Amino acid sequence: IMRRIHLKGDVLCTLLLLVLLCLVLYAQHDLQLIWGPWPTVAKATSSQGIRQIPSRTPATQAPQAPCQPHPSPPASTPQGSPSTGKAMVTQPPFDFQRYLRNKDCRDFKLLINQPAKCSGGQAGTLFLLIAVKSVVADFEKRQVVRRTWGRELTFQNGAQVRTIFLLGIPQNRTQLPLWEQLLAYESQAFQDILLWDFEDTFFNLTLKETHFLKWVDCCCSDVKFIFKGDADVYVNVENILEMLWGQEPGRDLFVGDIIVHARPIRRRSSKYFIPEIVYGQGIYPSYAGGGGFVMSGFTARRLHQACQEVELFPIDDVFLGMCLLRIGLQPVRHEGFRTFGIVRPSAAPHLQVFDPCFYRELMVVHSLTVPQIWLMWNLLHDPHFNDSLLDL
Ligand SMILES: *[C@@H]1O[C@H](CO)[C@@H](O)[C@H](O)[C@H]1NC(C)=O
Ligand SMILES: *[C@@H]1O[C@H](CO)[C@@H](O)[C@H](O)[C@H]1NC(C)=O
Ligand SMILES: *[C@@H]1O[C@H](CO)[C@@H](O)[C@H](O)[C@H]1NC(C)=O
C-alpha cells in the first residue's frame, strides 16, 4: 500500500511538473512571438528612424499602455471596426489608412539603372547576383560590402558573381544635401547602384522588393541565382556558392532562415504592429527572415509575376512570403542562415568568442557593424590567420 501511495505521489508530481512546463513554454512562445522573428530587421533599419509604430487604427489585444487621446482621430475609420480614438504618442503613428489608400500606387521609375550589370559582354554567365538593400546615407556600409564579401568575382569556368545595391530616395534630403551628386558619382565609379523614385522608408521596403524583382525580370533575366539581403550582414559567399554549384537554376529554389507560423503582432507599441484591417488572418505564411535569402533566377521571375497580384503589405519579408504562397513554393530552411550576430565587443573585449571555425560553417550572420564585417572577412580570408592573435 505504501508503495502505491508512493507511486501515486510520483504520478501527481510528474503531472504537476508537466503542467508547469506547459505554462512556461506557453509564456515563452508568447514572448517569442513578440521578439522572436524580428531581432535583426529592427536593427537593420534602425538608421531610418522608425522604431515604433503606434497607430490610431483599432487596438486588438494589446495591453493598454498609457494612452492619450489622439489629437486628430482619422476621418475615415472603416465601418464596423471598433474605434478607440486613442494612440500612443511617443512617435508619430504609422498611417495605415493612408497606406491602404495609396497601395495601388506601386509603379515607380527607375532613376539609375545598370544595364550592363547582367550582360557584361564577356562570354561568362552571371552565376550569382548579390542584391543588397541599402539607403543613400549608408555609404560606409556599401563600401565595406564592396571590399569584403560583396567583391565581384569571375571564376575560371566563366561563372561570375556581381553585386548591386538597391536604393530609394532618401527620406530626409536636407540631412544629405549632396545625395544626388553622391549617387551619380558612386554609380559611375562602381556601377552597382539601382535607384528608384520612391521614398526609402522602412514601410517602402516592399516596393523595393517588387521593383527589384521587376528589374531582374526585365534586365537580368539570365541570372542563375540571386542572394538578396541587408547591408549589415556578413555573407559567406563561398558557402553559398558551394551550396549552389550543384543546383539547377531553371528550377524553383528559395533558401533562408525561414520563419513559419509567425503571428501578426497586434501590440501597437511594436515596430511590427499590424492592425487587423491590414491583415486579418491569424498567421503569416512562411517567409524568410534575417539578413538574407537565396533564390534561383527562375523563382525570382515567378515571384515577380506573383507579387504583381498580391496587395502590398508593409513588411517586406512577409510580403514575399505571401508571393511564395501564391506560387505554391515552400521555402527551405537552412541552418547556415542564422538570426544572430557575433557577441558585441563590449561583452567580449578581446573577441575571444570569435571562433573562425564556427563562422566558416555559416552562410549569413547579421546585425553586424562595419568594422565587424571587415574584421570577420579578413580573419576568415587570411591564410596566416592565427588564433593566438585574438588572445592579446
Ligand atoms: C532632417 O535632417 C535635418 C539635418 O540633420 C534635421 O534638422 C531635420 O530635423 C531632419 N528632418 C526630419 C523630418 O527628420
Ligand atoms: C513610399 O514612397 C512613396 C513615394 O515616394 C511615398 O509617397 C510614400 O509616403 C512612401 N510610403 C511609406 C509608407 O513610407
Ligand atoms: C602563430 O602562432 C604560432 C604559435 O602558436 C607562432 O609561432 C607564429 O609566429 C604565429 N604566426 C603569426 C603570423 O603570428
UniProtKB/TrEMBL annotation:
The keyword Nucleotide-binding does not apply. Residues 46-87 are annotated as: Disordered. Residues 1-27 form the signal peptide. One of its GO terms (cellular component) is Golgi membrane. GO terms for biological process: poly-N-acetyllactosamine biosynthetic process; protein O-linked glycosylation. It is a single-pass type II membrane protein. It comes from the Eukaryota. Its EC number is 2.4.1.-. The keyword Transmembrane helix applies. GO terms for molecular function: hexosyltransferase activity; UDP-glycosyltransferase activity. Residues 54-65 have a biased composition (Low complexity). InterPro entries: Glyco_trans_31 (IPR002659). Transmembrane segments: none annotated. Keywords: Glycosyltransferase, Golgi apparatus, Membrane, Signal, Signal-anchor, Transferase, Transmembrane, Transmembrane helix. Residues 66-76 have a biased composition (Pro residues). It holds the Pfam family Galactosyl_T. It is found in: Golgi apparatus membrane. Its main location: Golgi. PANTHER family: BETA-1,3-N-ACETYLGLUCOSAMINYLTRANSFERASE, UDP-GLCNAC:BETAGAL BETA-1,3-N-ACETYLGLUCOSAMINYLTRANSFERASE 9. Belongs to the glycosyltransferase 31 family. This is Hexosyltransferase. It comes from Scleropages formosus.
